[in-house]
Amino acid sequence: MKKETPLKIRYLIKLLSNIVNGLINVILVAFVPTALGTQAYGEFSYLFQFFTRLYGFISAGSPTAFFTKLSANPYRKNLVGFYLFVVIAILFVVFLSVYLVNVLGFRNIVFPDIEKESYIYLSLLFLFLTFLFDIYLKISDAYVLTTSVEIVKIVYKLVYTISLIGVIQYFYFDLDIYLIFNIVATSLFLIATSSLFIKKGVFSKEIFQNLQFASTSKEFLEYIAPLFVTNSISIAIGFFQIWLLQKFGGAEESGYYGLAYQIGIMSFLFTSAMTQIITREFSKSFGEGDIETIRRLFLRYVPMLYSISAFFSLFVLFQAENVISLFTDDRFLEAVPVVMVMSFYPIHQTYGQLSTSLFYATERTKKYRNISLVSQTIMLGLSILFIYFLNLGAVGLGLTMVIGQLIGTNLQLVDNSKYLNMDYLYLVRHQIISILLFLTISYIASLFSMFQSPLVNFLFSGVVYLGLVGVAIYLYPDVLSLKKEELSRIMKKVFRRER
Q: Does residue 108 lie within any of the structural domains?
């Protein structure tokens, strides 16, 4: 194979793609919820989360097994062909499941407060294409085609956004139209990426040669077997949580939670850019028996990305009302409390995703299963308490996600610290210091929200926040997992380029 693109370059390209994607999500949040209204947007949020979990349940962790094994040995092209057949089987099972729910008369139980049947089947197809979209990104990362595919993704997202705004502004727009638009747009991306894969030799006749269904299936089952129980329980609890909110809170509460989640994941740009890339590096190093490199990568990037996520997320905490006023209208102002709660979610999601990737890459799936069962049981109890007994609606689900994430990720971190011989207490101190630092600075910056315009308040507070954070990092660079000497070298390079 040709020489690999360096890790930093792949990360920067993926980061650029994520930044573009994040800016586009900002634009979409400003248009879509308002155009659909609280009821329809709530229905979309419920269906989106429902089918995301359903595909996750039916796929039973196989996408992770596929990515890990392909990353460890990209020459095994038959894995691509094998998994394409698996993907088709997953679609069939999901469609059959939903069809039986309708035929047997359970639609109102499984899909409460969903106005039209067409929403269900269009969401099913849209989320299948989204599932396939993610598989394509895994293939691109495994074959180190990140740069090419992310460029295609950037172009696709820009065209998608301009076209969608045009549809909203100049044509009739409802949930049916929105789902059909997404189905067409995602299909075009998959076609363009397939052409690129054919050109690069990833998709060729070789992928369907020597498929070895029996032995490959056995290999996949051995990998995902320890995960099956925990995935099943995790997704079942996820189903129950969103169903509980939809049932007892209604579509509007689902809409508030969906809006808060969309705003929250904007803070996850930097971390999500690294997740699959670093998983690939973990898998590659583990295959070579190089545990020291894994340890170095973990200590270098995970605390840094945690702090970057906290930097963005905790600014949103005290700007929730300004953010909602910028993006939507008065119908969504009741979402302010859940946006504040969910601003904490992306912070520990950083540790969650990157710690989980280490479990997968090092094939310690039994350990991951045991830890996940504990954290999921806690989340089940919290969701019943907050949503059913305390009737907190979207805020209740937000609290469940944040507290459950905090507990689960730290349980994972304890085990990963032992495996890599890291100082767990150092990582805990880093978590606490980072949150307290950015929380304090964010609160101080919010005191400068003294104007009538939400936009001016947001921008002025942002400038103050950025300046104070810059000073804090200069005085305490360890918050970004940097030494003072490293920070000095970086600053010298920056100022040298400016000249």
A: yes
